[in-house]
Amino acid sequence: MFAQNYSASLQDIRKTITNIDGWLTDREVSFLAMAAAHPTAEGDILEIGSYRGRSTVVLAKAKQLAKRSELIAIDPLPNEEPMAEGSDGKRTARALFEHNLQTAGVSDEVEFHQTYSYDLAAEWDRPLRLLWIDGDHSYPSTKQDFDLYAPHITNGGVLAMHDVLSRYDGCIRVFTEDILTSPHFGAAGICGSIGWAQYWSNPEDASFYAPQKQDLLEQLLPLVEYHCQTESPRGLAKLRYKLLRARVPHRRMKPDQWIQSVKTHLASHA
Ligand SMILES: C[S@@+](CC[C@H](N)C(=O)[O-])C[C@H]1O[C@@H](n2cnc3c(N)ncnc32)[C@H](O)[C@@H]1O
Question: Which pLDDT score is estimated for 264?
Protein backbone atom coordinates (compact mmCIF):
# COMPACT_ATOMS: atom_id res chain seq x y z
CA MET A 1 0.00 0.00 0.00
CA PHE A 2 2.79 2.42 0.96
CA ALA A 3 4.63 1.70 -2.30
CA GLN A 4 1.48 2.51 -4.34
CA ASN A 5 0.71 5.74 -2.50
CA TYR A 6 4.35 6.78 -2.63
CA SER A 7 4.58 6.12 -6.34
CA ALA A 8 1.47 8.25 -7.05
CA SER A 9 2.80 11.02 -4.79
CA LEU A 10 6.21 10.90 -6.50
CA GLN A 11 4.65 11.33 -9.94
CA ASP A 12 2.78 14.39 -8.67
CA ILE A 13 5.96 15.75 -7.04
CA ARG A 14 7.98 15.32 -10.24
CA LYS A 15 5.41 17.31 -12.23
CA THR A 16 5.15 20.01 -9.56
CA ILE A 17 8.88 20.71 -9.27
CA THR A 18 9.64 20.76 -13.00
CA ASN A 19 9.85 24.56 -13.01
CA ILE A 20 11.56 25.01 -9.64
CA ASP A 21 15.27 25.68 -9.95
CA GLY A 22 17.64 23.65 -7.84
CA TRP A 23 20.23 20.91 -7.92
CA LEU A 24 18.34 17.85 -6.69
CA THR A 25 18.40 15.05 -9.26
CA ASP A 26 15.43 12.74 -9.83
CA ARG A 27 17.12 10.01 -7.77
CA GLU A 28 17.59 12.42 -4.88
CA VAL A 29 14.02 13.71 -5.17
CA SER A 30 12.69 10.18 -4.84
CA PHE A 31 14.96 9.49 -1.85
CA LEU A 32 13.88 12.63 0.02
CA ALA A 33 10.23 11.94 -0.77
CA MET A 34 10.60 8.41 0.61
CA ALA A 35 12.24 9.61 3.82
CA ALA A 36 9.49 12.20 4.36
CA ALA A 37 6.65 9.85 3.44
CA HIS A 38 7.78 6.93 5.60
CA PRO A 39 8.61 8.17 9.12
CA THR A 40 11.02 6.09 11.15
CA ALA A 41 10.56 8.03 14.40
CA GLU A 42 8.53 10.68 16.17
CA GLY A 43 9.21 14.36 15.49
CA ASP A 44 9.22 17.06 12.85
CA ILE A 45 11.15 17.63 9.63
CA LEU A 46 13.74 20.41 9.45
CA GLU A 47 15.24 21.70 6.21
CA ILE A 48 18.37 23.86 6.37
CA GLY A 49 18.76 25.59 3.00
CA SER A 50 15.67 26.05 0.81
CA TYR A 51 16.80 28.31 -2.09
CA ARG A 52 13.85 28.31 -4.55
CA GLY A 53 11.96 25.62 -2.61
CA ARG A 54 12.70 22.53 -4.71
CA SER A 55 13.40 20.22 -1.78
CA THR A 56 10.90 22.13 0.38
CA VAL A 57 8.11 21.19 -2.01
CA VAL A 58 9.29 17.56 -2.19
CA LEU A 59 9.23 17.26 1.61
CA ALA A 60 5.94 19.13 2.00
CA LYS A 61 4.10 16.99 -0.53
CA ALA A 62 5.62 13.66 0.54
CA LYS A 63 4.98 14.19 4.24
CA GLN A 64 1.25 14.38 3.48
CA LEU A 65 1.41 10.57 3.17
CA ALA A 66 2.69 10.34 6.73
CA LYS A 67 0.39 12.90 8.37
CA ARG A 68 2.61 13.11 11.41
CA SER A 69 5.10 15.95 11.24
CA GLU A 70 5.48 19.66 10.80
CA LEU A 71 7.94 20.88 8.15
CA ILE A 72 10.16 23.76 9.18
CA ALA A 73 12.48 25.35 6.60
CA ILE A 74 15.29 27.83 7.25
CA ASP A 75 17.11 30.01 4.71
CA PRO A 76 18.26 33.66 4.84
CA LEU A 77 17.30 33.92 1.13
CA PRO A 78 19.62 36.82 0.30
CA ASN A 79 18.81 38.62 -2.93
CA GLU A 80 21.20 37.91 -5.76
CA GLU A 81 22.79 40.51 -7.99
CA PRO A 82 21.35 40.77 -10.56
CA MET A 83 17.99 39.94 -9.04
CA ALA A 84 16.53 36.54 -9.90
CA GLU A 85 14.23 36.40 -12.89
CA GLY A 86 10.74 35.04 -12.21
CA SER A 87 8.28 34.06 -14.94
CA ASP A 88 6.67 37.50 -14.64
CA GLY A 89 9.70 39.71 -14.11
CA LYS A 90 12.36 40.26 -11.43
CA ARG A 91 11.52 39.13 -7.90
CA THR A 92 13.25 38.94 -4.58
CA ALA A 93 14.51 35.51 -3.53
CA ARG A 94 11.79 35.40 -0.87
CA ALA A 95 9.06 36.25 -3.40
CA LEU A 96 10.28 33.54 -5.77
CA PHE A 97 10.36 30.99 -2.95
CA GLU A 98 6.85 31.89 -1.83
CA HIS A 99 5.57 31.88 -5.42
CA ASN A 100 6.94 28.33 -5.91
CA LEU A 101 5.37 27.04 -2.70
CA GLN A 102 2.06 28.65 -3.54
CA THR A 103 2.03 27.25 -7.09
CA ALA A 104 2.75 23.81 -5.62
CA GLY A 105 -0.12 24.26 -3.17
CA VAL A 106 2.02 23.72 -0.08
CA SER A 107 2.31 27.21 1.46
CA ASP A 108 0.29 26.09 4.49
CA GLU A 109 2.46 23.00 4.97
CA VAL A 110 5.70 24.89 5.59
CA GLU A 111 6.80 26.98 8.56
CA PHE A 112 9.48 29.16 7.00
CA HIS A 113 12.15 31.15 8.86
CA GLN A 114 14.08 33.67 6.77
CA THR A 115 17.28 33.56 8.78
CA TYR A 116 20.51 31.62 9.24
CA SER A 117 20.34 28.17 10.85
CA TYR A 118 22.74 29.25 13.62
CA ASP A 119 20.49 32.20 14.52
CA LEU A 120 17.52 29.91 15.18
CA ALA A 121 19.51 27.24 17.00
CA ALA A 122 19.55 28.89 20.45
CA GLU A 123 15.76 28.75 20.72
CA TRP A 124 15.36 25.40 18.92
CA ASP A 125 13.72 22.73 21.10
CA ARG A 126 11.72 20.62 18.68
CA PRO A 127 12.43 16.90 18.23
CA LEU A 128 13.28 15.90 14.66
CA ARG A 129 12.49 12.70 12.81
CA LEU A 130 14.20 14.00 9.65
CA LEU A 131 17.01 16.55 9.52
CA TRP A 132 17.83 17.65 5.95
CA ILE A 133 21.04 19.68 5.70
CA ASP A 134 21.50 21.53 2.39
CA GLY A 135 22.76 24.97 3.41
CA ASP A 136 26.30 26.35 3.19
CA HIS A 137 28.50 23.39 2.20
CA SER A 138 31.80 24.75 3.59
CA TYR A 139 33.29 22.65 6.39
CA PRO A 140 32.75 25.16 9.25
CA SER A 141 29.10 25.73 8.32
CA THR A 142 28.21 22.10 7.68
CA LYS A 143 29.87 21.06 10.92
CA GLN A 144 28.02 23.83 12.77
CA ASP A 145 24.66 22.73 11.33
CA PHE A 146 25.41 19.16 12.35
CA ASP A 147 26.54 20.11 15.86
CA LEU A 148 23.60 22.45 16.48
CA TYR A 149 20.76 20.32 15.12
CA ALA A 150 21.78 16.64 15.16
CA PRO A 151 21.26 16.52 18.96
CA HIS A 152 17.55 17.12 18.26
CA ILE A 153 17.16 13.99 16.12
CA THR A 154 14.92 11.55 17.96
CA ASN A 155 15.65 7.89 18.54
CA GLY A 156 15.36 6.22 15.12
CA GLY A 157 15.26 9.54 13.26
CA VAL A 158 17.17 10.16 10.03
CA LEU A 159 19.80 12.70 9.05
CA ALA A 160 20.21 13.40 5.33
CA MET A 161 22.83 15.72 3.88
CA HIS A 162 23.23 16.85 0.28
CA ASP A 163 26.41 16.94 -1.82
CA VAL A 164 28.45 14.28 -0.04
CA LEU A 165 29.63 13.10 -3.47
CA SER A 166 30.00 16.62 -4.88
CA ARG A 167 33.21 18.64 -4.68
CA TYR A 168 32.57 20.44 -1.38
CA ASP A 169 34.67 19.67 1.67
CA GLY A 170 32.00 20.20 4.35
CA CYS A 171 29.52 17.48 3.46
CA ILE A 172 31.93 14.59 2.92
CA ARG A 173 34.00 15.51 5.99
CA VAL A 174 31.03 15.70 8.36
CA PHE A 175 29.52 12.55 6.87
CA THR A 176 32.74 10.56 7.32
CA GLU A 177 34.13 12.16 10.52
CA ASP A 178 30.94 12.70 12.53
CA ILE A 179 28.37 10.25 11.17
CA LEU A 180 29.97 7.09 9.80
CA THR A 181 32.43 6.93 12.69
CA SER A 182 29.79 7.59 15.36
CA PRO A 183 28.47 4.55 17.26
CA HIS A 184 25.09 6.32 17.41
CA PHE A 185 24.38 6.07 13.69
CA GLY A 186 23.16 2.73 12.35
CA ALA A 187 21.86 2.11 8.83
CA ALA A 188 23.58 4.52 6.45
CA GLY A 189 24.09 5.00 2.75
CA ILE A 190 24.36 7.33 -0.22
CA CYS A 191 21.66 7.97 -2.79
CA GLY A 192 22.78 10.21 -5.62
CA SER A 193 24.81 12.74 -3.65
CA ILE A 194 22.68 12.51 -0.49
CA GLY A 195 24.39 10.89 2.48
CA TRP A 196 21.92 9.56 5.06
CA ALA A 197 22.05 7.72 8.37
CA GLN A 198 19.67 6.63 11.12
CA TYR A 199 20.33 7.85 14.67
CA TRP A 200 20.05 5.73 17.85
CA SER A 201 20.57 7.04 21.37
CA ASN A 202 21.72 3.56 22.46
CA PRO A 203 24.73 2.44 20.36
CA GLU A 204 23.58 -1.18 20.75
CA ASP A 205 20.69 -0.41 18.38
CA ALA A 206 23.20 0.79 15.79
CA SER A 207 25.99 -1.76 16.25
CA PHE A 208 24.64 -4.26 13.71
CA TYR A 209 25.41 -1.75 10.96
CA ALA A 210 29.04 -1.12 11.96
CA PRO A 211 30.60 -3.32 9.21
CA GLN A 212 28.39 -1.76 6.52
CA LYS A 213 29.33 1.75 7.73
CA GLN A 214 33.02 0.81 7.80
CA ASP A 215 32.86 -0.34 4.15
CA LEU A 216 31.21 2.92 3.13
CA LEU A 217 33.76 4.92 5.13
CA GLU A 218 36.65 3.18 3.37
CA GLN A 219 35.08 3.91 -0.03
CA LEU A 220 34.53 7.58 0.81
CA LEU A 221 37.80 8.46 2.56
CA PRO A 222 39.95 8.52 -0.64
CA LEU A 223 37.58 11.17 -2.06
CA VAL A 224 38.08 13.60 0.82
CA GLU A 225 41.39 15.04 -0.43
CA TYR A 226 39.79 15.81 -3.82
CA HIS A 227 36.81 17.54 -2.23
CA CYS A 228 39.15 19.69 -0.13
CA GLN A 229 41.05 21.02 -3.19
CA THR A 230 39.81 24.27 -4.71
CA GLU A 231 41.03 23.29 -8.20
CA SER A 232 39.23 20.51 -10.09
CA PRO A 233 41.48 17.48 -10.68
CA ARG A 234 42.97 17.14 -14.17
CA GLY A 235 44.44 14.39 -16.30
CA LEU A 236 45.24 11.19 -14.40
CA ALA A 237 44.06 12.68 -11.10
CA LYS A 238 40.67 13.35 -12.68
CA LEU A 239 40.45 9.79 -13.94
CA ARG A 240 41.42 8.39 -10.53
CA TYR A 241 38.81 10.61 -8.84
CA LYS A 242 36.09 9.46 -11.23
CA LEU A 243 36.96 5.80 -10.65
CA LEU A 244 37.01 6.22 -6.86
CA ARG A 245 33.68 8.06 -6.93
CA ALA A 246 32.08 5.44 -9.17
CA ARG A 247 33.05 2.73 -6.65
CA VAL A 248 30.89 4.33 -3.94
CA PRO A 249 27.41 2.74 -4.02
CA HIS A 250 24.95 5.58 -4.64
CA ARG A 251 22.18 3.98 -6.63
CA ARG A 252 18.48 4.85 -6.64
CA MET A 253 16.63 3.34 -3.68
CA LYS A 254 13.20 1.74 -3.95
CA PRO A 255 10.59 2.13 -1.17
CA ASP A 256 10.85 -1.53 -0.12
CA GLN A 257 14.65 -1.18 0.14
CA TRP A 258 14.21 1.89 2.34
CA ILE A 259 11.73 0.14 4.62
CA GLN A 260 14.05 -2.87 4.93
CA SER A 261 17.14 -0.70 5.54
CA VAL A 262 15.76 1.38 8.40
CA LYS A 263 14.15 0.30 11.64
CA THR A 264 10.94 2.03 12.69
CA HIS A 265 10.66 3.53 16.16
CA LEU A 266 7.18 5.03 16.46
CA ALA A 267 4.83 5.01 19.42
CA SER A 268 2.19 3.16 17.34
CA HIS A 269 4.76 0.42 16.53
CA ALA A 270 5.92 -0.05 20.12
C1 LIG B 1 22.09 24.41 -2.27
S2 LIG B 1 20.96 25.66 -1.87
C3 LIG B 1 19.58 24.76 -1.23
C4 LIG B 1 18.87 24.03 -2.30
C5 LIG B 1 17.51 23.49 -1.89
N6 LIG B 1 17.61 22.59 -0.75
C7 LIG B 1 16.91 22.76 -3.07
O8 LIG B 1 16.74 21.55 -3.04
O9 LIG B 1 16.66 23.41 -4.11
C10 LIG B 1 21.69 26.32 -0.41
C11 LIG B 1 20.85 27.35 0.31
O12 LIG B 1 21.34 27.41 1.64
C13 LIG B 1 21.16 28.71 2.13
N14 LIG B 1 22.03 28.88 3.31
C15 LIG B 1 23.35 29.15 3.38
N16 LIG B 1 23.77 29.18 4.64
C17 LIG B 1 22.68 28.89 5.41
C18 LIG B 1 22.46 28.78 6.82
N19 LIG B 1 23.46 28.92 7.71
N20 LIG B 1 21.22 28.49 7.25
C21 LIG B 1 20.20 28.30 6.38
N22 LIG B 1 20.36 28.40 5.05
C23 LIG B 1 21.58 28.69 4.56
C24 LIG B 1 21.49 29.60 0.95
O25 LIG B 1 20.88 30.88 1.08
C26 LIG B 1 20.93 28.77 -0.22
O27 LIG B 1 19.64 29.23 -0.58
Answer: 83
Helix axes 2-17, 26-37, angle to 10 degrees: 130
What is the Å distance from ligand 1's center to 268 Cα?
34
Cα dihedral 105, 162, 255, 200, rounded to 10, equals -110
Ligand 1 contacts CB of residue 22 (under 6 A): yes
pTM: 0.96
Which atom of ligand 1 is closest in space to residue 93's alpha carbon? 27
163 within domain boundaries: yes
Q: Which structural domain, as residue segments, surrounds residue 179?
A: 2-262
Distance of CA 77 to the CA centre of its chain: 18
- CA of 49 from ligand 1 middle (Å) equals 3
270 pLDDT more than 60: no
**Spacing of C-alpha 9 from chain mean position:** 18
Evaluate whether residue 153 is within a structural domain: yes
Q: What is the pLDDT of residues 1-39, one digit of tens each?
A: 888 899 999 999 999 999 999 999 999 999 999 999 999
Tell me whether residue 27 is in a domain. yes
* Close Cβ partners of 270 (under 8 Å, ≥ 6 residues apart): none
Q: What is the mean pLDDT of residues 209-231?
A: 95
